[in-house]
Amino acid sequence: MTVVPIALIQMRSGIDPARNLNDAEALVREAAARGARFVATPETTHLVQRDAGALPALLRPMRTDPAMGRFAELAAELKLDLLIGSMAFAEPDGRAVNRSVLFAPTGEVKATYDKIHMFDVSLGAGEQYRESDTYQPGGQAVLAEAAGFQLGLTICYDVRFAALYRRLAQAGAVAMTVPSAFTRPTGRAHWEVLLRARAIETGSFIFAPAQGGLHEDGRKTWGHSMVVGPWGDVIAALDHDDPAVLYAEVSPADALKARSRIPALKGDRDFLGP
After folding, report:
1. What per-residue confidence (pLDDT) applies to 56?
2. Per-residue confidence band for 126, with pLDDT thresholds at 50, 70 and 90
3. Which range is least confidently modeled, 61-65, 81-85, 91-95?
4. Which position among 35, 104, 236, 260 has the lowest Cβ density within 10 Å, counted as fewest Cβ atoms?
5. Domains along the chain?
């Protein structure tokens, strides 16, 4: 059975992209030094700025953003599959995209995924989010190979939409990436439950690197990065919000074993109503 060493990066990104890139690189290098073949960073790796008015001056198109070259060189130097959980890129229509980028060990871009589901919620006590005011939602589910895994790429709020994960699993994904910046109220109540549910429903690994702590822009995120196995067991987890590297050793074959025990992905039936 092939066992793959992986690492998830937990960050506390701020409003300075250059500093965030330095922080991310240091943690990725730490992960590679421990032998990780696949490394994933959280949502909004190179910028956390909740002030929509301040974003346009900070964003670049993907083709000219210096983060792309920096991470490509890092993946090639360390010879690993590197998923940057998401970065915000400027689009011609004035909005942005929230995009995962998977780099190959050669430094080439293997795949990109634009977050489909927008976090438009009011949590009370003045805490409101309207991602659709700033970001153009994606419309394409994405499957990609990394370190022996078929990965289904998702981002944060996507985790509440089970149909996406089922579709990815039925298309061949044995692991799902859920890079996130969960709020503290929703993280405390729902983070682990949702991650374990998506794992159980699909018989898939869940790789969930997170932002954590009090950010420069005043946002508070939950952290508690987590690797969940295809039987719903928590393989590895951080119990805090501080920047750190979470390590695990996982085997793609375990997903196939879980699916043979509970073949729910083959059990769909048409039905009427309501």
Report:
1. 83
2. low
3. 91-95
4. 260
5. 4-264 (3.60.110.10)
Q: Which helix (H) or strand (E) holds 85?
A: strand 81-90
Question: What SS3 class is residue 128?
Answer: strand
How far does Cα 56 stand from its chain's mean position?
23
- Please name the residue that has the structure tokens 């503290």: 184
- Which residues of 91-211 form beta strands (DSSP E)? 96-103, 109-114, 120-124, 127-130, 142-146, 149-153, 175-177, 205-208
Extended beta strands in 178-272, E state? 205-208, 212-214, 220-222, 226-228, 234-237, 244-250
Instruction: At 50, list the tokens.
Output: 């909740």
The neighbour count for residue 202, using CB atoms within 10 Å, is 27
pTM of the full predicted structure?
0.96
Would you please indicate which residues are annotated as catalytic (active-site) residues? 43, 115, 156
Find the largest Cα–Cα distance for the chain: 55
Cα–Cα distance between 220 and 218 in angstroms, integer? 7
